[in-house]
UniProtKB/TrEMBL annotation:
The record marks Y16 as: Substrate discrimination. This is DNA polymerase IV. Its EC number is 2.7.7.7. The active site is at E102. Belongs to the DNA polymerase type-Y family. It comes from Actinoallomurus acaciae.
Amino acid sequence: MSSEAAILHADLDAFYASVEQRDDPRLRSRPVIVGSGVVLAASYEAKAYGVRTAMSGGQARRLCPQAVVVEPRMRAYSAASEAVFSVFRHTTPLVEGLSIDEAFLDVGGLRRISGSPVDIAVRLRREVAEEVGLPITVGVARTKFLAKVASGVAKPDGLLVVPPGGEREFLHPLPVRRLWGVGPVTAGRLGRRGITTVGDVAALPESLLVAMLGRASGHHLHALAHGRDPRPVRTGVRRHSMGAQRALGHRDRGDLDAILVGLTDRVCRRLRAAHRTCRTVTLRLRFDDFTRATRGRTLSQPTAETDAVLTAARALLEAAGDLVTDRGLTLLGVAVADLYDDDAVQPPLPFDRAEPTALDGTIDEARDRFGPSAITRGVLLGRDEGPTVPLLPD
């Protein structure tokens, strides 16, 4: 562990809702909900009434009837994300993006040219506010885990520093859910044994945690409860997977095939743009009760062809059967994994390079030249393809 608290976790506050409030002055200081069928984001004014991400739109409006409901604008959010990440990269070359709205920054060694880590964090927040117009919270600590916890505690629009030597004093009073990897099931299992804080976890022998939770989880939680996290901020790491997902309202559930086509089309276009191929296709499902399920299939050959990935995704959706029809589907996602560089894959006979089909290549070229909506699939004509969760580029 470094002797200096030099890792920043920077996290935009209520990102989608904050962009809407920035772009429409009438929405400022008002409760804002992004997404009518399913809540994709809620401003802190709406969160004060109990509105949460992934809640049904109907429930959100009952909790906060005075909220302004807006439809998502994914291009605006992507543009805002790019502008914020430009600020990050001007702050330090060591930036590890976690999602469209958060990143780790390592500012160690910049004291002589940029000031202390706290000075840098203060300036970063000011520059994001002035240049992009968005509030951002920053946690500063010696490890990635502690920096992320600090930003979570400091939200919204805050700055919190965990000083060297003060890690346990900060961490141990926090609820056990603050530990990475502790979800509702694990928290419930621990709670039934009277273990409710991080300090309670830290007081247990590692062997007991392993017996309760399994070897991997036990070791992991024991280390985090004691503030140990040796992972450095990593840059230039290529994605191990790509995906897109869409939250569904009730009106969308009869259009699952069309939605699946749109998601697969977007994912495969990103694959080809990154010169990657995939070997595994995964279907992601979320239901009314917030439970989740995944279904996966391994392809016989790595591919970036839309039709090949779509065929697998359709088969997975059909195999999910009763899950989809009986449990109230609220989110559908497609992900591809086991990624390879497209020129590093052993191709099948007759040893042609793994290139996109002529149709895929032509469509990609037209979209690159005239915009993503220049050409669309027939099944998507006249349909709102809806918001998908964008991923940071490779």
